Amino acid sequence: MSIVIAGRSLVLVGFMGSGKSSVGRELAKRWNFRFVDTDAMIRHKYDLSIPDIFAKHGEDFFREAEYQALVRLRGICSSVIATGGGIVTQPRNLPLLRALGPVVWLCADQTTILNRVGKSTHRPMLNQANPQESVARLLKERAPLYHRAADLRIETSGLTHQEVADRIVSGLDELRAQPRMDTNRRE
Questions:
Q1: Where would a tag sit more exposed on the chain, N or C end, judged by fewer CB atoms within 10 A?
Q2: What is the C-alpha to C-alpha distance for residues 56 and 61, in angstroms, rounded to an integer?
Q3: 124-157 per-position pLDDT tens digit
Q4: Cβ–Cβ contacts within 10 Å for residue 63, how many?
């Protein structure tokens, strides 16, 4: 475990299919941390799938549920937290994410994302007439938001979950060695 997160948690952000859940489980196992998935918290609370929440209550309701999940996680330690792909679209979520611990942006190219989730029926943002166009648009919209939220960016395209976890560990160690430059990260 990296000294950067000792006594804190690690937060994974990124687009759907970037590997947040799989890599998060791998890191939690390595560090003997708890694994938390904000989408799973929401599914459990409402006893509905994410597509059913979107269909029944709409996206605004879901975004409020994401915010409330982060509020419930305040003060949690020794956890790896995988967030939903759109959690960064709500500015009020950023301070909550940062308060939990270092934020790592897992990113993947459009082809990799479509290969990983393109046939998925449980991703509301893909249930569009043209999923490729939807992914391209959302990636472009969200990239600056992920960048603003993150302490560290890790490319996951073409890597195994174990390789991504290794890169996160190395990146956290490098982050620890650097002087903190919050103004670069958060402006």
A1: C
A2: 9
A3: 556 666 778 888 899 999 999 999 999 999 999 9
A4: 17
Residues 6+ apart with CB under 8 A from 46: 53, 65
Scored b (16 or more CB within 10 A) or e, 146-185 reads beebbbbbbebbebebeebbbbbbebbeebeeeeeeeeee
Helix (H) or strand (E) segment spanning residue 23: helix 20-31
Please report where in the chains the tokens 């059913």 appear, as a residue.
52
What average pLDDT does this structure show over 78-86?
A: 96
Residues 6+ apart with CB under 8 A from 76: 9, 34, 36, 100
- pTM of the predicted model as reported, rounded to 2 decimal places: 0.88
- Continuous H helices in 38-160: 38-46, 50-57, 59-73, 93-100, 110-117, 131-149
Question: According to CATH, what is the number of the domain 3-174?
Answer: 3.40.50.300
Instruction: Reduce the DSSP state of residue 10 to 3 states and report it.
Output: strand
Domain positions in the chain: 3-174
pLDDT one-digit tens code per residue, 23-45: 999 999 999 999 999 999 999 99
